[in-house]
Amino acid sequence: TGSAKRRITSDLVVWSSGVSVQSAQLSAAYAQLSDNIPRIKQYLISKGIPEDQMTVSSISSSTMKRRDSDGNETDEITGYMLTQKIEVRSNDVQKIAQVAREATELINQGILIESSAPQYYYTQIGGLKIEMLGEAAKDAKERAERIAQSTGNSIGSVRSAKMGVMQITAADSTDVSDYGVYDTSTIEKDMTAVVNVSFAVD
């Protein structure tokens, strides 16, 4: 078994934030939402995020219903909840990470923003994966040679080779999974490739 590890830095960030409002009247909830979303957009633009990196979702709505004395939901509608989100996709990872941390400033402006944790990705995995599998195979061969030499033998031709799952973990993490790990919570990550190779022994 051979392996290769590289430290990689995320080059794409996806961050979602939004507002949920509740009101007894649907029109009032809509008016409040229509006021808050443009203010969030303007805040993001003021932080240097281009508008073309933002996507505003459609409005989702749900009804709130009265519960009886036993806690069971009745058919009586008591109000409405409307939710709308803004998703930011950007290659300026550090800037978006900072804006996501500072977005709670909007609470001081009366906007109860709901901010999700940014998701960080590395988009060049394809090319790097091929390169690292080659390094892992070379590592497997060197390991096999050392094992064979310790018993006075040498390795022959390759009998079989199988790629293991790719692990992309938080930097210095020891997390592994049989199905592979893809951490999106951190900017800095470790990418590990594993190859299992069988050799003939001479």
User: What proportion strand?
Assistant: 35-45%
- N-to-C series of helices and strands: EEHEEEHEEHEEEE
Low-pLDDT stretches are none
Q: Kindly provide the radius of gyration, computed on alpha-carbon positions and rounded to a whole number of angstroms.
A: 26 Å
Based on helices, strands and strand pairing, what is the structural class?
A: alpha+beta
Helical residues, percent:
25-40%
Number of strands: 11
Give the distance, in angstroms, between the N- and C-terminal Cα atoms. 19 Å
Overall form: elongated
- Overall average pLDDT: 92
List the helices and strands and how they pair.
Blueprint: E1 2-9, E2 12-23, H1 26-46, E3 54-56, E4 60-67, E5 73-90, H2 93-102, E6 114-115, E7 119-121, H3 125-150, E8 155-163, E9 167-170, E10 181-182, E11 188-201
Parallel strand pairs: 9-10
Antiparallel strand pairs: 1-11, 2-5, 2-6, 2-7, 3-5, 4-5, 8-11, 9-11
